[in-house]
Amino acid sequence: MCSLAHRFMLVTILMVLVSRSQAANAPSKLIQDICKETAESHGTYDGCVSALELDPTADSADIGKLAKISLQLGISNTTDTQNYIKKLIKDATPESQKTLSSCLSSYLAATASFKSALSELSEDPLSANYDSKVAGDDVQECEDEQERDKAQIPGLATRNNYGKLYSAIAFVVTNHLPQS
Ligand SMILES: *[C@@H]1O[C@H](CO)[C@@H](O)[C@H](O)[C@H]1NC(C)=O
After folding, report:
1. pTM
2. What domain of life does the native source organism fall in (predicted)?
3. 167 in ligand 1 pocket by Cβ < 6 Å?
């Protein structure tokens, strides 16, 4: 019943499946390059790869598409943090109100900067590059405000890191766009 040929076929099929799933897990060459460069200024290589791969089309994207993806992820991530801060504001103590509303303004600005960059991508890559950087500075404002107020807002440090990560990624990607 279970001939040698059958076993051989089974092993071959298994090997093909394993190598395919490994290929699917490997980030594209472009993502590898972008994330190596990003890791020099912010976070880790792996953090950058998983941040981009939240979009399932990232691995097949060219540089223009990847710029779009990184900015869109920056927009959705900072918008989510805006909503998080809005929820916290509802039951915040008077002391943390000030920090939180300042952070909310910072995040409104950060999302707006990512949006400007996205709208500038095709016409003006230089401005898109600049605004990608500004988004990270906006997030930094929230971090600075927390330090000035000596406030510890739960979950916000992690989210600030996400915001700055997408800014750092978008800055690197838009820096590699062909200049028109
Ligand atoms: C924000 O980005 C981080 C890092 O990629 C990710 O872990 C998190 O799930 C994102 N949050 C949302 C709401 O997209």
Report:
1. 0.87
2. Eukaryota
3. no
